[in-house]
Amino acid sequence: xxxxxxxxxxxxxxxxxxxxxxxxxxxxxxxxxxxxxxxxxxxxxxxxxxxxxxxxxxxxxxxxxxxxxxxxxxxxxxxxxxxxxxxxxxxxxxxxxxxxxxxxxxxxxxxxxxxxxxxxxxxxxxxxxxxxxxxxxxxxxxxxxxxxxxxxxxxxxxxxxxxxxxxxxxxxxxxxxxxxxxxxxxxxxxxxxxxxxxxxxxxxxxxxxxxxxxxxxxxxxxxxxxxxxxxxxxxxxxxxxxxxxxxxxxxxxxxxxxxxxxxxxxxxxxxxxxxxxxxxxxxxxxxxxxxxxxxxxxxxxxxxxxxxxxxxxxxxxxxxxxxxxxxxxxxxxxxxxxxxxxxxxxxxxxxxxxxxxxxxxxxxxxxxxxxxxxxxxxxxxxxxxxxxxxxxxxxxxxxxxxxxxxxxxxxxxxxxxxxxxxxxxxxxxxxxxxxxxxxxxxxxxxxxxxxxxxxxxxxxxxxxxxxxxxxxxxxxxxxxxxxxxxxxxxxxxxxxxxxxxxxxxxxxxxxxxxxxxxxxxxxxxxxxxxxxxxxxxxxxxxxxxxxxxxxxxxxxxxxxxxxxxxxxxxxxxxxxxxxxxxxxxxxxxxxxxxxxxxxxxxxxxxxxxxxxxxxxxxxxxxxxxxxxxxxxxxxxxxxxxxxxxxxxxxxxxxxxxxxxxxxxxxxxxxxxxxxxxxxxxxxxxxxxxxxxxxxxxxxxxxx
Length: 703
Prior knowledge:
globular; eight-stranded mixed β-sheet
């Protein structure tokens, strides 16, 4: 046993010396290339003297990086995470400047701007060298990852020597926005070789499931993690009782939705016992959370959701690698969007402004940090981990769900999955990896691009309110006004002058629109809407870009309205016929369920859907959208090991995020995993924990 310990010490010492030597050589090469970087006196030195100076500088840089860097990162806790990717370059350069000042006789000199370049190259070389040595044997690789695992989390699970139970743990990895058909195509075309091997070898089964009417992350993930997405009618909606707009990806809204779900179900969530939630909107009741939106609004540095980013960036090699990849992704997006514009691809949306940076953040920074968090959880033997990777969803919104840009993201996500599979081989307990998605995406041009006006302006026209001059000049603007005049049998302008009209609130969630009248405290009836705005419902229902409307009728209860005066009570809706005939199985039940929500809007608007091409018209600026009914957006997937029981029996259909929650709970229990107590504390906030940083050399190189 003592001999093994000495061998490990000797191996670690050898790797440290090798990394130091590589840093020394790199510094000497850069000094010979860069004019503003020197390692010798003005009169010149021998090669031996230059090598000694380089060795001292490399050693001082490595020592300062290990000791000072975590303190610098901690001091920047209030810096937005998006800015941190750029700041790390300058911090690394400052560390190098200090290191060279420590070299005796002042032989190490470098300009500040050159120091940034030298420090970045040295960090990258040190990371690659150390990783290459560690990966050469599995034991060394495993020890390297363990050293990177956060000490606080090891304490939380009983210390390093406490061991882990022999029962398997479970990792739920959510590929945000990846539909069932997209995953099948990616596996078939070898874009995702890891997924393809699972399906080809029969180790996993692929199961589609059906979302609710609100086919978006807020509703789906709340249902999956907390067992209830009751009263979540869309991604964003107006609540008359509070006068507030709830937005699923707003921290305060996410916290409120999580509180309501816990209150509704009576338990804390899927991850209540020994669980970890990474990169999600909601915590799932996990003890360990990082980058979770529902806790981001809490006060105090220790409770900030961004804390997870700083745990990752406390390793300067990680910071430099991710920052370089971030810049490369920004350049990639600019190149791809320019190419799409020059080739005049259709459909297309604007991809300028901050979008290249937002995309790089989602596809590089968020991915790296979340994968690192999951690796740390696996290496300390957590029982259940749920993590969300949002890269595909972000790119598909702007490039299209079947675009080459989105396919490239799927390739990189598969490499992250392969890394987790490799790490599972070194974890202290066996792990089952379940891959799933929260929704898909449906292609199609935007409502604005097709008709020249937004849903909001169409509603304004139907209400007799003025619309912007630009809209009035378009064919669609004239079309909207003509529809209003036909419905009223008189000019629109006469209605607009009859007194002050309270403007409606119009919100969009993909191809689902919500119209609310804030001055009316209750859900308005069809009769009330017709009395106030006689042309509105007819204008919307007869517009070619609208599929159907949901409103409440005083005479018939809730009804669905469509073109040519179609009006069907919700109770009489049936799949395959009537106004929902083209929207596929389950559409009628989805509409009925949403109608029962307390905060359903006065008018729910679902866009037109073309079943032949699977296209919808988004009310937002997205050519790959989700949020309503129609096409692939409502068909996500569940890819599970065959060792787990069938998600549904006898060829049944898995419907709704709440049913998915019950399936995942059952799987946790099958492996004697965490039992989810119904009497869990309803309002206890879980602590935020930091996590292990993934070895940069083990991840795919985005750059």
